[in-house]
Design brief:
Blueprint lengths: L2 H7 L2 H62 L2 H9 L2 H18 L3 E5 L5 E4 L17 H6 L5 E6 L6 E11 L2 E11 L12 E6 L5 E4 L14 H9 L14 E5 L4 E5 L2 E10 L4 E8 L1 H27 L4 H11 L8 E2 H12 L10 E8 L2 H8 L1 H18 L5 E6 L2 E7 L3 H16 L14 E7 L6 H17 L5 E3 L4
Parallel strand pairs: 12-14, 16-17
Antiparallel strand pairs: 1-2, 1-5, 3-4, 4-5, 6-7, 6-11, 8-9, 9-10, 10-11, 13-15, 13-16, 14-15
Amino acid sequence: MGTWVKNLIYTSKGLAFLVYLLLTPLISYQLADLVWEKEFSALKSENENTSKLFSHNLQNSLQQNEIASKLIARSELIIQLLAEGGDIRTKQANDFLNEINSSIEAGVIYIMSTKGITISSSNWYEKNSFVGKNYSFRPYFKKAIKGQSFAYTALGITSGKLGYYYATPVKQNNKIVGVVVVKTNLSNPSEFMSTNEEKVVVTDPNGVIILTTEPNWELHTLHAIDAATKRSILKSRQYIGASLQAIEMIQLESNRLHSLVKIEQNDFVKVISHLKEQNWQLVTLTNTQVANRLSFLTALATGLTGTIFFLIFLYYLGHRGHLAELHELSIRDSLTGLYNRRHMIDISAVAASQPSSEISSEFVTVMIDIDHFKQINDNYGHAAGDLVLQKVSKVIRRNMRAEDLAVRYGGEEFVLLFASLNKQNDTLLVERIKEHIKELRFSQELDALRISVSAGIAYHKKGETFDETVARADALMYKAKNTGRDRIVSDQDK
């Protein structure tokens, strides 16, 4: 071994250089892999939540229309119309069906005679009205006229729109006199979901895509179907003019719960669930681009960090800006951007080390808690809960001064720490934050969501520790909750 090699190894600079060359790539790869796995798990979890929400909304809509079909079949007006006919009854039935259709927001509701001819319809007044049309060839009519309620998915002959048809026989004295059909349009997935992040696909029992967020995928298939099935679908006129071509999807990896696939050069987390009553398959696809990007950035950041520390050690140069950024990240809550509880504890430790006489009596501690936050998570999902926390935090930041401290204390609780202006203005500041939070509005499926908060204001007392002040603010906040929520209680209240 040459002298220069020995000198390189046995000098601290040389050793640092070797460690840098050997460990930095390894650590970068390991951390990047861990980040990717974490983000992949998060994407999978988000995907599953989206799938549950979509499935729930879709199933509710279909069940509602199925129930409506059965109730209409029992209507005396409809029974008399089918048994006896008459222009007056027809007009009354048209208005009746139109009113129900508007209420349940179905696609169309119509009544068919025993010969399969539509004699009344909620869309009787439209140019492409179903009235007078003969749909006796449809399987749902053939089943219903024999006494069996039946669901069927097909492309509308008259409307040209994909629909879920639920047919119910209408009986008079145990004799079938006609059929009522409620059609649910399947061309607009936004009626059942609000996400723009995932691709959602619903397929019928044959694997044909009948509902999707990707318009170009409609009436294609996720996987190639055999020739016999394709001929049967075309012969039945179920999907007239459909190509039934398979989407180009490459399987990358798979297990029992999820898989990773490639579509058009993008990788997706694929999660499959089922709507058992309809025998449909629900597939959600979430792009892994975010996970890939974060993984790359993690590897890059690790490599750069290694390089920075190597240069610091080598040349004794301080990159204070970078270190300050790392410090800022360590004291901030990643979801809300507010300071985290650990940072507040550090501050309290510094305060505790000072004589109590040096802690200003004008020091204000405010505890804020979002009302009924658990219901938000239960009703809308944790992604919605995270969005609420972010928006509430933004309101808090916007109303606080640069020298004030806003902390995400835990869960849906926040702590505000600031020097008192005066008792009235302190309360006005908290009131302003509370009212701005109430004015928050959300889009899409969260449109009806309204947020309120309860708050407690505690002023530091001479001889009191920081923790004791926080505890009093917390107790005052719970008093606000117990007296009706959406209010502020201060220890200065008379």
